[in-house]
Amino acid sequence: MADRVLVTLDGVVRDPDAPLLCADDLAAVRGDGVFETLLVRAGRPCTIELHLSRLQRSAEALDLPEPDVVKWRNAAEVAAKQWGTEAEGAMRLVYSRGRESGGDPTAFVTVGPLAERVQRARADGISVMTLARGHSTELGQTAPWQLLGAKTLSYATNMAALRFAARYEADDVIFVSSEGRVLEGPRSTVVIERGRTLITPPATQGILPGTTQRALFEVAEDAGFACEYAPLFPADLITSDGVWLLSSVTLAARVHTLDGLVMRRSARADEIVSLVDVAVESIGASK
Ligand code: PLP
What we know:
This protein folds into 2 domains: 5-114, 2-Layer Sandwich (D-amino Acid Aminotransferase, Chain A, domain 1); 118-282, Alpha-Beta Barrel (D-amino Acid Aminotransferase, Chain A, domain 2). The strands form 2 sheets. Strands 7, 8, 9, 10, 11, 12, 13 and 14 form an 8-stranded mixed sheet that branches. A 6-stranded antiparallel sheet has the order 2-1-6-5-3-4. The two termini are 25 Å apart. The longest helix has 15 residues, at 69-83. The protein has helices spanning 26-30, 48-61, 69-83, 116-124, 139-142, 156-167, 211-222, 234-238, 269-282, and strands at 5-8, 13-14, 33-41, 44-45, 89-96, 106-112, 126-132, 172-176, 189-194, 197-200, 226-229, 242-247, 251-258, 261-262. By secondary structure, the protein is of the alpha+beta class. The protein binds pyridoxal-5'-phosphate. Residues 37, 184, 186-189, 208, 210-212, 246-248 line the site of pyridoxal-5'-phosphate. InterPro entries: Aminotrans_IV (IPR001544), Aminotransferase-like (IPR036038), BCAT-like_C (IPR043132), BCAT-like_N (IPR043131), Class-IV_PLP-Dep_Aminotrnsfr (IPR050571).
């Protein structure tokens, strides 16, 4: 089992410690590119087809050349195999506009160990702080150049929000729009429980469509949950039976404290965790 993996889009396994990018790569100097993060489990890239579809949509939003999905799928499979079956890994697919001086886009896949916070969030849940995102739910529609629905490499403000929250001892963040609507986490989708109904804000409100939430909704419907896309206010979080932050690597993190308020654990919590687990292993497996 490798402890870190680097595979370029041509499927070649590279030394993860050898330099790969040039100093004028637009990923490095502008954050001008797109990426995906996904879980490697049992030597397989989970929900890879959902991630490849979103990579295509993100690339289109940035006017990048259309990604060659066959090559990306192959590179992801090579990298996952290289990582091995012993432990879960965090895979990134990175696709930038390439060098400022011209040439082809930059495209590579990496796999590394899960951050320590991941196991903690899965097992114990997380404390969350709501923070203003500073824009309206309409920005995605009125200003498409803001790229709100694309997973771009420009994550500096998302990381800053997490550092801000950490100063107040919160593990994570839920962004709220200027109208006071719940949006998403800096690296996750918000889903609430109301009895056997699961609700998430619609992607048309300027948020990234989450692959984990989508996979969960597919299996949850079969398990007798009603799944809805609907606008949410912070009060809906507080009065819900459970708030979850879903993401590809952490999977399901239950919010145990929201803005200092302790949230109870519903009788369905274990079922939701299992459904997410089943979902990421069964939905969007490699074609
Ligand atoms: N929203 C944002 C801003 C994210 O960065 C992420 C994941 O990285 C998500 C939502 C959740 O998406 P996924 O479930 O595909 O990981």
